[in-house]
Amino acid sequence: xxxxxxxxxxxxxxxxxxxxxxxxxxxxxxxxxxxxxxxxxxxxxxxxxxxxxxxxxxxxxxxxxxxxxxxxxxxxxxxxxxxxxxxxxxxxxxxxxxxxxxxxxxxxxxxxxxxxxxxxxxxxxxxxxxxxxxxxxxxxxxxxxxxxxxxxxxxxxxxx
Length: 160
What we know:
This protein is mainly α. The protein contains 6 helices and no strands. Helix 1 packs across helix 2 (30-63) and helix 2 (30-63) runs parallel beside helix 4 (90-100). The relative contact order is 0.09.
């Protein structure tokens, strides 16, 4: 997790700045600024349009009594694309555009689903029972608290 944060907060901005500086050196100074503004505006408009389409699909699924799992993943990916368009840079804009194109988003969605299947465990059990312990012995060991005590003395008046 720390490596991902290091990449996202340190390496990615440095690479984005380097790309924008290279573009500025190869062209005029205003071209990288125009690229950032144009991709930000176009990307936000595209994200809004795709977001409304995903929201309509979620409503259709809910109205038909289906669980909108695929539509929710699409909505999450469109949200991520919108966030990427808010970040100034060329690489984040390219990834945002890839997430907004439905065929490429479908490929990314397959990867997200495969990741969830590997990382998330779902257990189903009867209502009202804890489902996490794998056996009764484990449940007893987990929930019983053992207290070691020693009787020093008793008074006859307290025992009735």
